[in-house]
Write a structure and sequence with these properties.
Number of helices: 4
Number of strands: 5
Order of helices and strands: EEHEHEHHE
Strand order of the largest sheet: 2-1-3-4-5
Distance between the termini: 23 Å
C-alpha cells in the first residue's frame, strides 16, 4: 500500500509500517498545502493518508476520493504517543477502502 503521512504526523512512524511504501507530505513538497490541495495532489499517487487532523473528515469530502484516510487520535503528535496506535493503524490500513475515513484512538 502507498501511504502518505501528513505533515503533522511524525516521520519516524514510517519505521513501524514495514511492507508499505511510505512517504511524508514534506518529502513530496506538499508540507505547506492546505487539506483540500493536499487531497487533490494525492489522487492517483497514494492509497491512504494518515493524519492527526481530526477535523479533516468534516472539512473535506473524502467519499469520492480514490484513497482512504486514517485519523490517529493520541494525546499529542509526538512519536512516543503515536507508537501505541500502530497495531490499530495497521489493522485500519488492512481494511481501508477508497473514500472511507477510519479513526484509531489510543
Amino acid at each position: 500500500m502507498r501511504i502518505l503521512l501528513d505533515a503533522c504526523v511524525p516521520r519516524g512512524l514510517r519505521n513501524s509500517l514495514s511492507g508499505h511504501e511510505v512517504r511524508t507530505a514534506p518529502e513530496m513538497s506538499w508540507g505547506d498545502l492546505d487539506n483540500g490541495a493536499l487531497l487533490d495532489a494525492m489522487g492517483g499517487e497514494f492509497d491512504a493518508l494518515v493524519t492527526v487532523d481530526k477535523r479533516l473528515p468534516q472539512q473535506q469530502d473524502i467519499k469520492n476520493r480514490p484513497f482512504g484516510v486514517v485519523v490517529l487520535r493520541a494525546r499529542s503528535n509526538r512519536l512516543s504517543d503515536m507508537l501505541p496506535l500502530v497495531p490499530g493503524l495497521q489493522a485500519a490500513l488492512s481494511t481501508l477502502k477508497p473514500g472511507v475515513v477510519n479513526e484509531v484512538a489510543g
